[in-house]
Design brief:
CATH superfamily of the largest domain: Type I PLP-dependent aspartate aminotransferase-like (Major domain)
Radius of gyration: 21 Å
Bound molecules: pyridoxal-5'-phosphate
Strand order of the largest sheet: 2-8-7-6-5-3-4
Number of domains: 2
Strand content: 5-15%
Number of helices: 13
Helix content: 25-40%
Structural class: alpha/beta
CATH class of the largest domain: Alpha Beta
CATH topology of the largest domain: Aspartate Aminotransferase, domain 2
Mean pLDDT: 96
Number of strands: 12
Low-confidence stretches: none
Order of helices and strands: HHEHHEHEHEHEHEEEHHHEHEEEH
CATH architecture of the largest domain: 3-Layer(aba) Sandwich
């Protein structure tokens, strides 16, 4: 049997993250409540599933254009981005294999060996891995609880190296913190990006999950930004369609044009019936609103619960479905805290250190489970903290 030696160096060096072990352990235990998963627990609305199966029965079972069906690109332009009617469906938008498929394509097309990419710390785990795999170097831009885990313009300047830094990734609403970058700060980041002539990747996959009337805008809409920003979106979170693998991106036409060609070599096209399901979903924004409202309710429960736990200081993020509370007061590092939480009261949370150095002392709490489960989990965490 052939072994790993046949793989290239990049693939050989890949390893699963440290938190994987904890999740594997949890999967073998009974009575565990998960606050560790970044996926809505709801099933996709059955009407979307029906639209997809009807499309199949009508023969929409063939290859689609590399960029995605025009009907979907039209619908995305109107309704799929934070910035509505802002991108040209014919030349600036393409459909991808989930948000991750969009990253993979962007990194493959944009990065040359050694190019540096600025990413906030703490950050979504896959950013760094994808950048590294495609030959780039991920450079963390530190953020803190005090500044709402939002990158500061001066920290971007400090991390920038002329001739090396190619791209800046921004992710708002954010995974793992749930924070939404306020408009004023977004404007400052946009200004620095223009000044430093950076390409910007704006990950807006949690764009529809926003609460408490938080002001939501896309960095692509600031002066000088449309020509340097690639926006990534997805049906996964907002429409509870993680398994459908439908994502999309929009950006400068010359860049999108080449990415459509690269798509041909790696994916050919994206699942055709699923694209028709996605068209139907966008014609029914009330489905996304239903999901948002259910998370708004869960968010309230979890925020209230965490505020009442002595020793934990929680942030009050206005987006996605995460909290990122400070647990440093208990004198344990975040991995030990989360491991003991699992062993002793059977609740899974993700250690903040998994998301970068600045995540140490915090944990990510996903409020994607049903309300009764969330209440039980909070009760268990409270008991655990009291004991500590
Ligand atoms: C910040 C962020 N971006 C992108 C994705 C990718 O989502 P998908 O590939 O399912 O569209 C995720 C998934 O967890 C995420 O948290």
């Amino acid at each position: 049997m052939l072994g790993e030696e046949r793989l290239n160096e990049k693939a050989r060096n890949i390893s699963l993250g440290a938190i994987r072990e904890m999740f594997d352990k949890a999967s073998k235990m009974d009575g565990v409540i998960s606050m560790g998963i970044g996926e809505p627990n709801q099933d996709t609305n059955p009407a979307i599933c029906r639209a997809c199966s009807e499309a199949m029965l009508k023969g929409k079972t063939h290859y689609a254009p590399n960029a995605g069906i025009l009907e979907l690109r039209n619908a995305l332009s109107k309704n799929g981005f934070i910035a509505k009617n802002f991108f040209d469906p014919e030349t600036e938008i393409m459909v991808t294999n989930g948000g991750m498929g969009a990253f993979a394509l962007i990194m493959q097309c944009v990065l040359s060996l050694g190019d540096e990419v600025l990413i906030q710390d703490p950050q979504y785990l896959n950013f760094k891995q994808t950048v590294n795999y495609c030959g780039g170097v991920a450079i963390p831009v530190p953020t803190s609880f005090e500044n709402g885990f939002c990158m500061q313009a001066e920290d971007i300047r400090k991390a920038y190296i002329k001739g090396k830094t190619k791209m800046l990734i921004i992710n708002s609403p954010n995974n793992p913190t749930g924070e939404v970058v306020p408009k004023k700060q977004l404007a400052e980041i946009a200004k620095v990006a223009c000044e430093l002539d950076l390409l910007v990747l704006s990950d807006e996959v949690y764009g529809s999950l926003i609460y408490d009337g938080a002001e939501q805008c896309s960095i692509a809409t600031f002066p000088g930004m449309k020509e340097r920003t690639i926006v990534v979106g997805s049906f996964s979170k907002g429409y509870a369609m993680t398994g459908w693998r439908i994502g999309y991106l929009a950006g400068p036409s010359a860049i999108v044009n080449k990415m459509v060609k690269v798509q041909e070599y790696f994916n050919s096209c994206i699942n055709t019936p699923a694209q028709w399901g996605a068209v139907f979903a966008l014609e029914h924004p009330e489905f996304a609103e239903e999901i948002r409202l259910s998370f708004a309710e869960r968010r309230k429960i979890v925020l209230q619960g965490f505020e009442n736990i002595q020793g934990i200081k929680t942030n009050h993020p206005k987006g996605a479905f995460y909290l990122f509370p400070d647990i440093s007061g208990f004198g344990l590092d975040s991995t030990s805290f989360c491991n003991r939480l699992l062993d002793e009261v059977r609740v899974v949370c993700t250690p903040g250190s998994a998301f970068g150095e600045c995540g140490e002392g915090f944990m990510r709490v996903s409020y994607t489970a049903e309300k009764d489960k969330l209440l039980q989990a909070i009760d268990r965490i409270e008991k655990f903290c009291k004991r500590l």
